[in-house]
Amino acid sequence: MFVIQLREQHDSLNVISLLTPETTGQGHGLLGNITTFTYRNGSTFIITTDDNGQAQFVFGETWRLNKNETLFYYVDTYEQHQNL
Fold it and tell me: How many helices (H) and strands (E) does the chain have?
């Protein structure tokens, strides 16, 4: 079984993937493979707990879509929704 939960949290979209033992290691891209995250450019890093989340933040930022890549429609402007 493979479940993805999407929810708003602290003005951002929080994506949570729930995997069973038989699906562990089968995620790719943004979902990683549980112990290793794959950056958008294909490089990887192993998750550690000693960086206060900085590596995970940088990882998430590599998957940020620019104005020409997004599939979302913005009533105001794309830039107003980028908290950079």
Answer: 1, 4
- What is the DSSP track for the chain? -EEEEEEEETTEEEEEEEE-TTTTT---GGGTTSSEEE-TTS-EEE--SSSTTHHHHHHHHHT---TTT-----SS-SGGG---
**How far is Cα 4 from Cα 24, in angstroms, rounded to an integer?**
14
Whether the model clears a pTM of 0.70, i.e. scores above it, the answer is no
Contacts within 8 Å (CB) and 24+ apart, 63-70:
63/29, 63/30
DSSP run (H or E) holding 69? none
Domain extent listing, the chain: 2-81
| pLDDT, tens digit (0-9, with 9 covering 90-100), for 10-52 | 767 777 777 677 766 666 655 556 667 778 888 887 766 666 6
